[in-house]
Fold:
Amino acid sequence: MFATAISTVTGVLDRRFLRNSFALSLAFIVLCGVVALAGNGQLGAAITIWQSWRAPVQLLAAAAFIATVWVVAAVVQSQIRSITQAFEGYWSGPLRPLRRYGEKRHWQRLDKLRSQQQAAQIYARYPLSRNEVRATRLGNILRAAECYPRDRYGADSVLVWPRLYPLLPDNIITGIGQARESLEFLLVLSALAAAFGTVSGIYLIVVMAPVWLFLVCVWGAFAVAILAYRSSLGAALLYAEVLRSTFDMHRLDIFSNMRLPAPANAAAERQRWTEFSRLVLRNVPLPQPYPPPPP
Structure:
C-alpha cells in the first residue's frame, strides 16, 4: 500500500514539475529571448545565424538551452511555496502597510457577509475568526481550509495533517495532488507573466523599442497575470474543499492507528484532539488506556 502511494505521489510530482515549472520556465525564457532580440532589431539576424550552424552544433546548443531551462525550472519549483505565500498576502517589510490595508478591506467584506447572513460565502471564502483574515482573496480561501479542522473539531491542522496524510487511500492522495497541481500552475503562470511584463517593459524602454512592441509585451503579460490569478481562486476553492472533505472522512483514522478508542461525541472528540496536541507538543501522555489489539 505504502509503495503504491509513494509511486503515485512521485508520478504526480514529476508531472507537476514538467507542467508547472519546466513548461512555464521554457515559455518565459523563450519569450524573454525573442523580446530581447526584437527590441534591438536582431531577431532576423539571430535566426540566420542559427540556420548557418551545422546540425551537431545546433544539437549541442539545443541541449545547453534545455539544461538551462531545467535549472531555472528547478529554482521555480523550489520557490512555489514562496510564490503561493506571496499571493496569499504574507507580506512583510515595505509591503506591511499594503498587507494591513488588504486585511482591513477583507474585514469589511467579512462583516458585510455576516450582516447579510451569507453563511455559504463565509464558509468557502473566509476563516471564522477576524484574526485569521488575510490580505488577499486567495489567502482567505486557503486560510479558511487550514482553520476548518480547528473550528469544527478542535484539531490543529499543522499537527494533524502530516500524520493523517500517510494514512489516506491512494485515490484521495491523487485527488489532492491534482487539485494542488492546478492551483500551483495558475499561480506560477501569474507570477512569471508579471515578471515578464516588468522585465520586458523596462528593457524595451531602455533600448527605445517600438511602442507597439512595448504595449503588446507589457499589457499582454499583465493581462495574463491577472486572468491567471483570478482563475486560481476557483482552483483554490476546489482544493480547499478537497482538504475539508478529506479531514471530515478520515480524521478518526489517526485515533485507530494510535490504538485509541473513537470519541463518543463532539465534546469528547475536541478533548481527544486537545490531548493529542499536548502529546505532540509537550510529550504529555494520553490519559486513555490502549484498547486490546483486534483478534
